[in-house]
Amino acid sequence: GFCTNLLLHQTPRHILAQANNKTEILCDLKMEHTGMYWYRWSQERQNFEFLIFSSSLGKATYGANISQDKFSVHGMSSHTSYSLHISHLHASDNGTYYCSVSQSSQLLLGSGTQLGVVDVLPLSLKTTQAAPPKKPTRCVTKSKAASKKGACSPVVWVPLAASILVLLLSLVPTACRLHRLRRRLWLRIHRQ
Do the domain assignments include residue 173? Predict the structure, then answer.
């Protein structure tokens, strides 16, 4: 059986290449294996095709009708990273390519790389200078608005003036009482 897994990490996910050129697909393994298989799924032909097996010793075994000039595999000395090289690209190379390893009688597949081969690559879009990002707007409370407007803002001085006035008015009777007490005390001292 086939199953996808997290053991194999395949890059890139998509390739758009020009005919008659070459391309490369990388596959990293989480652990060392004796070799790597490569398969291609063709949407057009609706088949899953074995391309090549490359052993950790560097020996390659090709599938039926697979050109050795077109496909080659390069492995790293750690045996945890392999790359599939495809040359002389043609429209018939379109498909999704999978790296694979055999484990416990199962073929574990990578995430897949979709290859599209075109006669002419589309013109790359001109890079336009991006507008500077706008600062996010924040909610402003009345107190924040007051602090931004400054000390002369009515939002600040009206409540402040009202509270000072109430305080002064509440002090007037107390001040009058203190004045009378002081006067009585002064009169008593001078009578004696």
Answer: yes
